Amino acid sequence: MNTFDVAVIGGGPSGATAANDLAQKGFSVLLLDRDGRIKPCGGAVPPILVREFDIPESLLEAKVTTARMISPTKVKVDMPIGGWVGMVDRGTFDEWLRSRAAKNGATRITGKFSRVTRDDEVHPIIEFKDSKGATHRIRTRAIIGADGAASNVAKQCLNDQKPLPNVFAYHEIVKSPQAINDDIHFDPKRCDVYYQGQCSPDFYGWVFPHGEQTSVGMGTAKQGFSLRASVSKLRAQSGLSDAETVRTEGAPIPLKTRKRWDNGRDVVVTGDAAGAVAPASGEGIYYAMLSGRCAGDAVAEFLATNDARALKLARKHFMRLHGRVFWILGIMQRFWYSSDKRRERFVSICKDPDVQTLTWQAYMNKKLVRAKPVAHVRIFFKDMAHLLGLAPR
């Protein structure tokens, strides 16, 4: 039976980042991923991701310079980004990340994870099936579960935890229009975000351009809400009803970070499996890659010291960096997305220059902006005015 230092289950941005980092550190790494899976995703990546994870700009299908917020009454608020946000196609982007990990020494295998088993030996065994259904077994000193919101690694190895609450995201990739027509709201350098109950009763809808293709999608946690009907309405609103559909995808997105990411022995989860997704926005690529790096660092420490307490460092480091932001965004989502009346107010707040500046500075740099305390005070009182219904829409 082959033996590895680390088996990474799942080859999305989080798993591929962890595998790449560990392989570069000289560990023997197995990267196991299913064939042909593409996660539904708007595809937005901030410049800090490109810098921190050495991503070539050639992978960016487009650079967006404006975000348009659209209210329930179809009020449009354009927010200049003050720079650019990159847009990637997850099929191309994720494959590049997996290939990089393999080039740097990870052993890449296509297969479907089955289970973790244990015998009289110290280290666990990974079982998986290949494309023909044959079962394979490998032994590993550590396991990183990066297998999505419905993580089987988490279910088996962190089985004392309840399933994470999630929204179900669905999108349709369509061919982008050739011409720009503001009357139908499409612009290849602008992301459109629909805060409308008819698009999503508890989240939002989006139209995100990816160069030659565009993602039109939405998310909701409400059972029975028609995803396809909602996206059909979005396509009609944005003038994309007649655009050719390239593919459709759906998957759950976690709404809450797990309280524990490791089993205290030899397993740690990351990415969607750990709930490392920003509330309110559902942004996941940057946080997936960062949590993968945190998991890789924790596992490297565990392998070097054989001290399982090191695995706790993955969550500890991630939450130290972004726990406060996630808490604030969670409050925003619960309050502002609860009704069309509040969504209308939320979009109105986005008109404010201070809100626009601080929002995009925080997004681009992935940290709370403290350089302008007066602006924060102004925003606080403006928010209160909107909450009390004293501010004009």
What's the topology here?
Blueprint: E1 3-9, H1 13-24, E2 29-33, E3 44-45, H2 47-52, E4 62-70, E5 76-87, H3 90-103, E6 107-110, E7 112-117, E8 125-129, E9 135-145, H4 152-157, E10 166-175, E11 190-194, E12 205-210, E13 213-220, H5 227-237, E14 245-254, E15 267-269, H6 285-305, H7 313-336, H8 340-349, H9 353-365, H10 373-387
Parallel strand pairs: 1-2, 1-9, 2-6, 4-11, 9-15
Antiparallel strand pairs: 3-5, 4-5, 7-8, 8-9, 10-13, 10-14, 11-12, 12-13
Helix pairs in contact: 1-3, 1-6, 6-7, 8-10
Description:
The strands form two sheets. The chain has an eight-stranded mixed beta sheet with strand order 3-5-4-11-12-13-10-14. The chain contains ten helices and 15 strands. Mean pLDDT is 89; it is low at 373-377 and 384-391. Helix 1 packs parallel to helix 3. It is of the alpha/beta class.
